[in-house]
Each structure stands twice: as structure tokens, then as C-alpha cells.
Amino acid sequence: MTDTDTAIRPRRSALYMPASNAKAVEKARTLDADVIILDLEDAVAPEMKPAAREAAVAAVKAGGFGAREVVIRVNGIDTPWGAEDLRAAAEAGPDAVLVPKVDDADGVRLYDQYLNGAPPATRLWTMIETAKAAFHLWDIAGAVHGTRLSTWVMGVNDFAKEMRARQTPDRAPFLPLLTLSVAAARAHGLTILDGVHNDIEDLDALEAVCVQGVDFGFDGKTLIHPKHLAICNRVFSPSPEDIAWSQAVIAAFSAPENAGKGALRVDGKMAERLHLAQAQRLVAVAEAIAARSVAA
Questions:
Q1: What is the mean pLDDT of each run of 10 residues along the chain (296 residues)?
Q2: Could you give the 3-state DSSP secondary structure of residue 238?
Q3: Global pTM value
Q4: In the chain, where does the domain assigned CATH 3.20.20.60 lie?
């Protein structure tokens, strides 16, 4: 089961909200985020985790999130809260359940089993954030076949911790890992979201790392503060120039006189059939974003 068997859905911005914070969860229903992640893991203190679990389930059942996808991030199965988090999340039936620190394909299948009782539409999202996972990317992505897996979320902070690497503005220590993760995800039809930007106030740095994420091919980015939403949504949306070019490519290949041609000249640039496929997807993404804006 993959996202390729569903309509394109914008995931430009995925905002973590601590499920233990009732005001934050209520505010999430009004924010311009494509995805709301109700967090039971990193954002919640140990003594608050049972209450956060109950709050997340109640929020999903109450609804009111409009066009926003709602995801519950659970604690790991190896923690005191993981099994109960998974049971409760499966029963609540959010759009997806996000699980942490998956090291290999067996980990995907283990978490998938815990979601057997969830509604068919509930997907499995996994964090890619461990040094072990870096050497099993292909196999983890391949676990999409026969499971609910649909989306990866990069956890660069955890990579930095395990690798003892510095998080430089250009993210140089992580570039090979980010590239290989996108390649593995794309090869198996997965959506893939970039990791968070830690500096809440440095919006110029946020924009730069969002542009970098688009350059790498990420579908969107996870965020830790609402003030990051506008920049993230703008950067991960197709530009008017890209939409116009894509529409021109589609029109050119649709013209009767170009039937059967493999390459065309469009506005002074060469366009091949592969560019047509890219153009069609970009226009579909733009249309989905426009529809989401109306529905939200």
C-alpha cells in the first residue's frame, strides 16, 4: 500500500504539536499546515505521556481539522508507552501513525502488525533517524510492499546525536544521507519529508534550508513552530513560472501535430517525454494545493 494509489495530497508543511497541550491542539485546527502531527514522543515529558495519548485520541475523534492531515507520532515500541500508544492510535484511526527510530525492514513490519486493527485508510509513516537505518534505506523503503508504509520523515537531529556530527547551516555532514534517502523513497513510491529547522527565530536560515529541501526533491518539511509555516508552504509550492512552463509542455505534447514525438522545443527549451511526466505531476500538485486552500 503506497501513496501512489491515492490522489496527490500536498504535504509541504507538517507541524509537530505536543498532544499534551490542549491550546496548541485547538490552534492547530486553524493553522495553514498541510499536516498536523500530534506528538506523543519528543515533545511530551514522561509523566505527561498517558494524558497526551488520551488527548491525541480525543482530538482525532473530535475532528475539525478540515483539509489538514492528522498524524499521531507514537513512542517507540521499546519504551514503556509504545505498545499502548500504538493500540490507542490504531483505534482512533488518524490519517497516519508516525513511528520513531526504524532501523530496518523488520521494524516496519513489526509496527505494521500493531496497526492491524486500524481503519484501512490509516497509513504508517516512519522516522528515518538512526545510524543503522542509514545502511538499510533500500530495504526499509522496500517494506512498502505488503504494509501500510507510505511516508518517511527525516530526523536529522537524531542523526546528528548518533553520528556526533555538527549541524552546520549547509547541513554538509548529512548531504549524502539526505540524497540516498530521497532516492530510496522515490524508487519505492514513498512520500518523504525533510527534518525540522531548530532555530525558531532565524527565518532567513529556514528559507535557505527549505530551498535546499526542494532542490533535493523532498515533498515538504516537518516544522516545530507555526511561524515557519508561511515560508515552508511558499517554498514547497510550485512557482508561477514553473506552473506556466509545465502547462506549456503539456499543451505542446497534446497538440495533434506533435503526436508520437519524443522531444519538442517549448519556449526555447527542449522538452522530452520525461519532462511531460514531470509537468503533469507539478500541475497536479498545484491543483491539489489550490483545492486544499479552498477546503481548509
A1: 60 97 95 97 94 97 96 97 98 98 98 97 98 98 97 97 96 97 97 97 97 98 98 97 94 92 89 92 93 74
A2: coil
A3: 0.93
A4: 3-235
